[in-house]
């Protein structure tokens, strides 16, 4: 009787394991099994055939005709319908001469990550993205695209996260300034549509990464419409974007911001706005290598959640504060400004999380670099 009970228990355990194995795919697979639709698999196979795998970290071996594409590497499907909702090839080192049109047949996609691959310096597709109307996450960063960011991306009203950050171009062509390749950098550009036009309908956006996208055509109005267009924004990263002029007061309404990165723009000028001190969730503020001047708001130093504060290489002035208990600062970089005042004994004793400190300036008593 004991043997019979043991065998029954073992049979049940095996059955449970089989159910568990059949319900878990690769990448961002779902909790219930879903055999993919033939048209979805066919589009993915076409996409695979457009890649060259000479320097890739994967050859996508699971992407085989006749098998369930919902179980393929980097693929996730909806519950029961067999439609691809996730395509995550980020960091695979794939190479292609262009973005294959088969991608846009995957109209149920919600998550698309093609970052850190190489699309051969091809232009970002002018049309096709409008078909991916369910997208909530789009990441095309560091993928070798150049040219005008298409207005089709601005029509993806469900987007929560958008990352179009560009990268250095391996073989720069100085004659291609018009198309976004300048001084050795491979740029996407925002001219028509402008930044304001691109984000006008992206009201659900929480994260916006546009590092090294050329936004110079917006002039000093580069951020004038952001506060109204993306009211729930939490991350704003626009480093190396050739921005000009002051930080517009319309940003004052973005009280949910946790990250602001405007470094290396050179011509961002004017004062550091006092309203930034009202962003209680702010954890990262990067404003280095700009033309900011005037008195730095001391209240920003006192933000409880600020971890990374870098305003180096500007023309700012101010007094070093007595830091309060509970400050979360890990990096404080005020280098190459005009901060003044003597460093008092114990001034930084409350900065228990501090890992890096860089100070110099008129009248400051010391320069520190700490790791």
Automatic annotation (TrEMBL):
Membrane topology, record value: Single-pass type I membrane protein
Primary localization: membrane
Domain Leucine-rich repeat-containing N-terminal plant-type stretches: 38-78
Cellular component annotations (GO), alphabetically ordered: plasma membrane
Transmembrane segments: none
Location in the cell: Cell membrane
Signal peptide feature range: 1-22
Protein name: Leucine-rich repeat-containing N-terminal plant-type domain-containing protein
Species this chain originates from: Hordeum vulgare subsp. vulgare (Domesticated barley)
Organism lineage: Eukaryota, Viridiplantae, Streptophyta, Embryophyta, Tracheophyta
């Amino acid at each position: 009787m004991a043997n019979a009970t043991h065998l029954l228990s073992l049979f049940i355990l095996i059955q449970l394991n089989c159910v568990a194995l059949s319900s878990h795919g690769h990448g961002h697979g779902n909790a219930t099994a879903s055999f993919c639709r033939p048209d979805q698999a066919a589009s993915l196979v076409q996409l695979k055939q457009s890649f060259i795998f000479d320097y890739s970290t994967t050859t996508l071996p699971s992407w085989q005709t006749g098998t369930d594409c919902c179980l393929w590497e980097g693929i996730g499907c909806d519950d029961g319908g067999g439609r691809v909702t996730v395509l995550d090839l980020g960091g695979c080192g794939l190479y292609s001469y262009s973005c294959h049109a088969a991608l846009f047949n995957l109209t149920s996609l919600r998550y698309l990550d093609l970052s850190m691959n190489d699309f051969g310096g091809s232009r970002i597709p002018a049309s096709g993205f409008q078909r991916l109307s369910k997208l909530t996450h789009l990441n095309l960063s560091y993928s070798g695209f150049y040219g005008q960011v298409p207005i089709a991306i601005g029509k993806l009203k469900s987007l929560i996260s958008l990352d179009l950050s560009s990268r250095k171009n391996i073989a720069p062509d100085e004659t291609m300034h018009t198309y976004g390749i300048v001084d050795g950098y491979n740029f996407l550009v925002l001219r028509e549509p402008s930044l304001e036009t691109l984000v006008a309908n992206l009201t659900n956006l929480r994260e916006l990464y546009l590092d090294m996208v050329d936004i110079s055509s917006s002039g000093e109005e580069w951020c004038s419409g952001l506060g109204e267009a993306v009211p729930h924004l939490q991350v704003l990263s626009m480093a190396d974007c050739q921005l000009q002029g002051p930080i517009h007061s319309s940003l004052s309404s973005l009280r949910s911001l946790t990250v602001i990165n405007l470094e290396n723009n050179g011509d961002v000028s004017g004062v550091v706005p006092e309203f930034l001190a009202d962003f209680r969730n702010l954890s990262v503020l990067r404003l280095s290598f700009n033309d900011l001047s005037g008195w730095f708001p001391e209240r920003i130093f006192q933000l409880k959640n600020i971890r990374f504060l870098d305003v180096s290489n500007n023309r700012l002035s101010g007094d070093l504060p007595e830091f309060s208990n509970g400050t979360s600062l890990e990096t404080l970089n005020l280098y190459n400004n005009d901060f003044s005042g003597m460093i008092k004994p114990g001034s930084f004793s409350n900065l228990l999380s501090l890992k890096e400190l860089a100070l110099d300036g008129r009248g400051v008593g010391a320069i520190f670099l700490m790791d």
